[in-house]
Inverse folding.
């Protein structure tokens, strides 16, 4: 199978996964919000936020393991990959133990001192907190098994496990209706069980089907030094990213209450679903992008970076644009009575993700180099500064939405900083082509789409669900048409026409 065809098949598997998981996740959120209530839903989001704030190491471990397995998979022997996989696995166990103990010690202090909670909810909050740490431990120690599945490009299996995960979570949300009290506690307990079952599936599949994932009681000291150095720089960067997201949420909790947190969690649900639309392409491209860098295949490296950046953005925009223009109706239809602040926060978070998705392939390239010092210090510190800035604004009486204006501006500044860093690290990276063929193209196409949708919103007014559906479909078709006309290159248009003709015949 050719490399490009493999990317296409992997992307298809990930989009099938996406279709199922998005529908189930969004429906689960509605059921969970109804069964827990806005306050408990917001409370769970707050506890999860505290855990995420301290568990920034999880993403660092995942990125490090992904990077080294992807780079070595193309050139290392099976026995050597087994050694580095085993080394990574034992390292994950040690780091998970260290940080989970740390979270147990300091997390309770953070919840007691910095989180605004109703007095009657403090006891159950601590129980949920302890259960969440167990879930975190299971997730961390199984990161290498998920990473090797991705490095081997077993995206079909990855999709099936993801579908199992969201199906079980939907069942859990429904089961809560049978409990009359302590629903949040039972939800947290059920969540731990689901995490255990799904992550165990990764382990069993990898052990039975991937030779490189067989555990050897061996530590490769040279690899250990490399991955610890990588993780060290990633830790600071990921702390800054998590601090931005969860720190702003905790500030919203302190200044605007649990309803604000519930609004944020709902907006993150929508964003996660839509971000997956674009990130699926990047995830499918990632193994080959990293290997093209390792093989010094500059042309393919640039090509994969440019096209994954541009088309990932357009995939997301196809759905984001109509949703943003119809957000009021969608939230009311989905949730009945959405919490305050949800509409505005959702729009800002989606805009931030649209910016982020363009530059995600740039971050993958920086990871491929393994040289993270400049990336971590400069980008991480810039991201970190957003939280104290939001705190100052809130102290001076600024409204809640200023937090997410800062959120968007910070994302844009960090993204352009990463563009400068990757050019410094990889001199063969074609910056001028990225600016011209990706960014300028995206700005022109997006401007035309915004103008067209504003015209539709102004002159086409239909009522009820059928009216909404008609407008949403019309807007989606307009977005697709403008992307096809302005955003897609001629050579790719020919490929699309050829593909459609072959399917019609």
């Amino acid at each position: 199978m050719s490399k490009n065809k493999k990317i296409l098949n992997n992307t298809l598997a990930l989009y099938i996964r996406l279709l199922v998981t998005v529908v189930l996740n969004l429906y689960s959120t509605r059921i969970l919000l109804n069964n827990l209530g806005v306050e408990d839903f917001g409370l769970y989001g707050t506890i999860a936020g505290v855990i995420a704030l301290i568990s920034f190491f999880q993403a660092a471990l995942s990125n490090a393991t992904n990077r080294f397995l992807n780079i070595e998979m193309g050139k290392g022997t099976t026995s050597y990959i087994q050694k580095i996989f085993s080394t990574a696995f034992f390292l994950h166990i040690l780091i998970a133990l260290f940080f989970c103990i740390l979270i147990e010690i300091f997390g309770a202090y953070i919840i007691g001192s910095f989180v605004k909670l109703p007095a009657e909810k403090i006891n159950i909050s601590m129980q949920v907190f302890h259960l969440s740490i167990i879930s975190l431990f299971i997730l961390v120690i199984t990161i290498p098994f998920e990473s090797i599945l991705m490095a081997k490009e077993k995206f079909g299996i990855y999709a099936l496990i993801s579908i199992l995960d969201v199906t079980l979570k939907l069942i859990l949300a429904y089961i809560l209706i049978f409990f009359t009290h302590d629903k949040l506690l039972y939800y947290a307990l059920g969540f731990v069980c689901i995490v255990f079952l799904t992550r165990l599936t990764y382990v069993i599949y990898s052990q039975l089907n991937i030779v490189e994932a067989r555990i050897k009681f061996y530590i490769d000291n040279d690899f250990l030094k490399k991955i610890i150095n990588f993780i060290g720089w990633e830790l600071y960067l990921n702390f800054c990213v998590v601090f931005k997201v969860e720190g702003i949420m905790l500030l919203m909790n302190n200044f605007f209450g649990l309803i604000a947190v519930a609004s944020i969690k709902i907006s993150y649900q929508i964003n996660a679903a839509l971000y997956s639309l674009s990130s699926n392409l990047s995830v499918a491209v990632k193994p080959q992008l990293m290997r093209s860098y390792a093989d010094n295949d500059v042309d393919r490296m640039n090509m994969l970076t440019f096209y994954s950046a541009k088309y990932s953005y357009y995939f997301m925009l196809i759905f984001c644009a109509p949703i943003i223009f119809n957000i009021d109706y969608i939230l009311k239809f989905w949730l009945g009575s959405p919490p305050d602040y949800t509409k505005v926060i959702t729009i800002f978070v989606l805009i931030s993700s649209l910016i982020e998705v363009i530059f995600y392939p740039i971050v993958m390239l920086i990871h491929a180099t393994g040289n993270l010092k400049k990336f971590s210090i400069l980008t991480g510190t810039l991201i970190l500064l957003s939280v104290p800035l939001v705190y100052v604004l809130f102290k001076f009486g600024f409204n809640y939405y200023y937090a997410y204006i800062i959120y968007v501006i910070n994302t844009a500044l960090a993204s352009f900083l990463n563009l400068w860093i990757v050019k410094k690290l990889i001199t063969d990276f074609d910056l001028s082509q990225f600016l011209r063929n990706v960014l300028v193209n995206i700005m022109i196409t997006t401007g035309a789409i915004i103008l067209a949708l504003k015209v539709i919103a102004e002159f086409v007014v239909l009522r009820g669900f059928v009216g909404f559906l008609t407008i949403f479909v019309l807007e989606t078709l307009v977005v697709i048409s403008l992307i096809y006309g302005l955003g897609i290159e001629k050579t790719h248009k020919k490929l699309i026409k050829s593909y459609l003709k072959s399917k019609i015949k």
Q: What stands out?
A: Residues 259-505 form one domain. The two ends are 23 Å apart (CA to CA).
